[in-house]
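Researcher: Sequence recovery benchmark, item below. Answer with residues only.
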């Protein structure tokens, strides 16, 4: 499997080498821990644009932190006040789905309990077209991809087999992922672009975006996949 994983990463790099430099990527990384220790959150979300973190949200405590200059700009927008409801609903759904999608052969011995991670990404190309996708995995291992635009599921690791079987046959779950990514995320991205352009105009260098904010969340650091989306058609060709 190691060789196929390396090839998959190389494939993704080739696919995105032609992506417009004007494209903007808005992502939300969810980490669900059904058995958190001490005061650790059972659900944590980080929002980033072009890998620059601007938001951290604790679903259980309903606590949100806007990080860095970009976060300060974003929190002043009324459209962003409703995003916490959507993020919390997504966390609740992922937690509720864990018993049915966790790999059957998993045991807690040695490696500890699994955490479920999900990454929702929506992006707009320079030509104005918008798309969205989801990535799902366990404890940092990417397992399943979902193309929100065409509803196509792609398993990229055997740990994602139960997840794929369950979700591709569950219309309610599929519709939820599609609505949040193609609806909510797309709307947030459009509003966010206003803040982005404002910060670019006021920055010292016109080609430099807002400074990157380093994450203090340890759970999300275990997400090892690099790119926000892989084209299902290309993956199908590769896996075939």
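Model:
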């Amino acid at each position: 499997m190691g060789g196929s994983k390396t090839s998959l990463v190389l494939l993704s790099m080739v696919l995105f080498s032609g992506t417009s430099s004007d494209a903007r990527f808005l992502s939300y990384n969810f980490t669900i821990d059904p058995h958190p220790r001490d005061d650790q959150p059972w659900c944590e979300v980080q929002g980033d644009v072009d890998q620059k973190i601007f938001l951290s949200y604790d679903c259980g405590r309903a606590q949100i932190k806007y990080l860095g200059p970009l976060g300060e700009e974003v929190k002043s927008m009324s459209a962003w006040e409703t995003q916490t409801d959507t993020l919390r609903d997504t966390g609740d759904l992922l937690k509720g789905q864990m018993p049915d999608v966790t790999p059957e052969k998993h045991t807690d011995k040695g490696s500890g309990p699994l955490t479920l991670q999900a990454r929702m990404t929506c992006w707009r190309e320079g030509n104005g077209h918008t798309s969205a996708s989801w990535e799902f995995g366990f404890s940092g291992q990417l397992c399943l991809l979902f193309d929100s635009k065409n509803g196509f599921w792609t398993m990229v690791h055997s740990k994602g087999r139960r997840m794929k079987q369950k979700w591709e046959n569950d219309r309610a779950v599929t519709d939820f992922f599609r609505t949040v990514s193609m609806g909510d995320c797309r709307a947030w991205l459009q509003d966010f672009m206003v803040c982005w352009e404002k910060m670019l105009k006021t920055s010292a260098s016109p080609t430099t975006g807002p400074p990157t904010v380093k994450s203090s969340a340890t759970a999300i650091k275990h997400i090892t996949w690099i790119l926000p989306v892989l084209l299902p058609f290309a993956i199908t060709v590769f896996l075939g």
